[in-house]
Amino acid sequence: MTNAIEVRDLKKEFKSYSSRSGLKGAFRDLFTRNYKVISAVNNIGFTVKQGEMVGYIGENGAGKSTTIKMLTGILTPTSGNVVVNGMIPYKEREKFVKSIGVVFGQRSQLWWDIAVQESFQLLKKVYNVPDEQYKSHMDHVISTLDIGPLLDKPVRKLSLGQRMRCELAAALVHNPPLLFLDEPTIGLDVLVKLKIRQFLKEINKKYNTTILLTTHDLSDIEALCERVVMLDEGKIIYDGPLKRLKENWGDQREIHFQFLEDTSLASLIDLTNDMEVEWGYNTKEQRYEAIVAADEERISALITKVVSTHKVKDMKILETTTEEIIRNIYEVGTV
């Protein structure tokens, strides 16, 4: 299987200028500026195989968007090597952009005042897509994303969810083998997110489209990606299966109890004082919550002890969520 993306020792630095205070400082700034070099991406390396769906995650300022901009040819790296679809993005710009699709959640590639379908036709001309190929492919895209009723509307009259579905369709006019998605579901409601996720799974299966997804919504990652690349302060701190990340870090379980009779937090703590368990009370949901190690024997012993002395109305055992795992990793600073 060939690699769609190959990154080696990739680095991007920016100069950050600062002004001196006072009139004298402003005068000195005319001749010499104070600046410091900020490393947004620091010697990272990874590969993505053709047909993979990879989640590229990190906190704000970790370097995700900077990486995407280098992979798409918008930014030139300070140093290192990047090859995407067999080309160097910033050197073979015109040829390269015909082989990728890009959706930035906070930027639009559609023309604001014209109908959506006119934007599609313009992009068809830009990418020199044959009429027959355009019709068969876009009919499927438009139908799957359910944007048929929106085609005659100008973009400025669309809701955010409608516009994002049209943005995704626009990125696929030329049916690229590689799709970059930067926060594609930001601000969208649950139903629109589900529709977009289902569509991405479908094009990945039908066309073997490679997808690199950056998002803060980890439910997108869980729904679409088996592999994640995690970035922190410009460096990759994890690259591997999402399943392994959850196995290694999802080392706790949360058990929710609701009782038929009145009880107290103090009595539960006293009941389990010989066990390693952390109790809390959720006022909003009116339930008691116990956090215990993800060990079957310990969980079984805790439940046995509680139900032997209290009448239980409801009980749930929850795994640690991916969001909590990621937060714990960033607090520790390493995987």
From TrEMBL:
SUPFAM superfamilies: P-loop containing nucleoside triphosphate hydrolases (SSF52540). GO terms for molecular function: ATP binding. Keywords: ATP-binding, Nucleotide-binding, Transport. Residues 25-258 form the ABC transporter domain. The keyword ATP-binding applies. InterPro entries: AAA+_ATPase, ABC_transporter-like_ATP-bd, ABC_transporter_ATP-binding, P-loop_NTPase. The keyword RNA-binding does not apply. Pfam families: ABC_tran. PANTHER family: ABC TRANSPORTER ATP-BINDING PROTEIN (PTHR42711), ABC-TRANSPORT PROTEIN, ATP-BINDING COMPONENT (PTHR42711:SF1). This is ABC-2 type transport system ATP-binding protein. It comes from Rossellomorea pakistanensis.
